[in-house]
TrEMBL record:
<feature type="signal peptide">
    <location>
        <begin position="1"/>
        <end position="23"/>
    </location>
</feature>
<keyword id="KW-0732">Signal</keyword>
<dbReference type="InterPro" id="IPR032710">
    <property type="entry name" value="NTF2-like_dom_sf"/>
</dbReference>
<feature type="domain" description="SnoaL-like">
    <location>
        <begin position="31"/>
        <end position="150"/>
    </location>
</feature>
<protein>
    <submittedName>
        <fullName>SnoaL-like domain protein</fullName>
    </submittedName>
</protein>
<dbReference type="Pfam" id="PF13474">
    <property type="entry name" value="SnoaL_3"/>
</dbReference>
<dbReference type="InterPro" id="IPR037401">
    <property type="entry name" value="SnoaL-like"/>
</dbReference>
Amino acid sequence: MKKQLALIVFFATSIIFANTVSAADQEKKAVRNAAKQFYAALNQMFTGDLDLMKNVWSHKEDVTYMGPDGGFHHGWKHVIADWEKQAAMKLGGTVEPQEMRITVGPELAIVSNYEIGKNKGPEGQIRNVKIRATSLFRKENGKWKMIGHHTDLLPFLMKKPRS
């Protein structure tokens, strides 16, 4: 009788653990897809089109963006205004994530990676890009939405100090 009970407990625990691992894997895959959508939106933004970028981000007032030009923006209104300014530069090129690391919780996720590619600088010359980036995602209405993005600085994009 004890052996049967032990086997039942073992199989029940195995099923619960398998379902938990499967759910965690599904959430990690969903966050990876959200991050890939961000990079598709970023590359589209380099052409001047922000439609995908607007869909990737949460539109709440607690979002933050610290991009390669040295700015620090918080609140959807300010974050989208900075993306609009960048889109107007039409930097062209592409940037892709490399060595993506993902940590997922029930409602928040962190993605850390390199951003590697090429863009035009403000003067029109082609520039190599290799910077570190951290993205934060929150589950909103069942979908992972970006709530924060922070990158290293790119000297050719940094704001010039006022004289």
